[in-house]
Amino acid sequence: MITVLAWPVWAEDNTIAVSPDGQYVLRNVATGTYLMKDGTTTSDESLASNWRVITNDTIHYGDQEQLYYVHSDEAIMQLNNSGLGWSVKFSPKANMTYVMPSETTEGAFKFRYRYLADTRFLNVEVDDQGGERLTAARTSSPYNDWEFVPTSHPKDYRYRVMSMDRSSGNTKYSIAYRSHDPKGNEVWLSGWMAVPTDGEGGASQADHLLFSTHYTLYKSSDWPSVSDPIDSYSFKFSTNKPVMVEPDYYGCGITEQYDHPYCAADIMAEESVDMLLIAHDLLRDLHQMDCSSGDYPTYGIGSSQGASIILACQRYVENSPKISDAERRAINWVRTCACAGCYNPMATLCHYLYINELDVPNVVPSLLMGMVVGYPEIFGDTKAEEYFSESFLEGGIFEKIRSHQYSSEEISDFIRKACGATMSSMLSEQALDMNSDISQKLLKAMGQSNLTRDWNPKADIKLYYHPDDKVVPHLNFISFVNGMKDRCQGKLETQQTTLNVHVLACADFFARIIFGAYKE
Are 205 and 324 in a shared domain? Predict the structure, then answer.
């Protein structure tokens, strides 16, 4: 697994700290010039290319060298020998680069490459007229010593690669990307991408994008950017070989210190589509895949929480004035497949209040926390804690959710032990009074998250459901179909899952997706 270099690199007694967020220029010790991504050098540091470092922390060759990728956001540095001689390249393809401490210059490093028994170093060669060119040198000298220098002109990148795993003809990324939080402030969010390539990390072999929004996750170890998401099987085993894109969401991944706008699907749609558009940038920069003409259509998939978010993403792409015509054409949204989603949060809450006792009580604090953080303009100073009973609060449920140490099943167990799994025992008297001020705020927020109205879908939609689902009430499916059947400009199809338990229905859904159901 390729992981970001987030610790010092030790060069004998010398240390250089390479930050995962850092941008650096590479300065040649002998010439004092800086490396450019087109394979040239410059004496002007302000013109020099900015570089980041990704390292493989599982492959070590003694104490002196380690495998690295040194890259700009458009090229990866490499020496290459295809059997016809050495060349210096800067391309999207990743190859084996070893960084070793220099024995000729204290604190400097050499970039070492090996082809069979032939070892070379990235080198600057100076001719008689003072001209410089990059070469692959056999001998060790100050001309192949390099220093990582923090840049004085950091670039305003839209994304940065946090980790990369290149194996089995696929390249997987964890990326950070620029977006906005629920208050409209700029924030870095995170997500996961997988790209089928030519086996060398270069040109993509995909002909479409599969955009996935994940179901409810609480534990830090489960974020898509941290470990391959479960729905990545849709990529691993798919005969379609798509590029797969999956955001963590605000409040997850690198923003897990904040409350997550759970079920505020319209809020998460914007930040999720931001990642989809930035994925286009990465595909162009590193995999020779230009999505601008719409030749790589997008298919959306999601189950449970992800089902409402993926439909909100489709609505955002089709309707939002924040999406330009050029971006809409590039995305080319063709079809959405969604299973067991909360398409109408208000109807969901009313159903929960009616049945009172819940099989999966963790959804209630998640839902109310999500509304409060998702719509600050509605709630003002009202806090999520005001909606819950004393016994619920004394159980420390919010603290457990915010710790990101427990699964949804564990959170539900904590609630049962603290106050029981009924709405009447979980909620405060004010929250149970639909005429109270805090209840009116909640209902208003839920109305903004309603996906069953104010929209004429252009792309095809297929909904998977089971009428006996006890976690996401069947009322959501009925509400969407009744509200949209005369509005859809594309096809609106439905499919009952074989299994009726919510989790198993979602598993049934993903089994179908793996075998290409999203493209039917």
Answer: yes
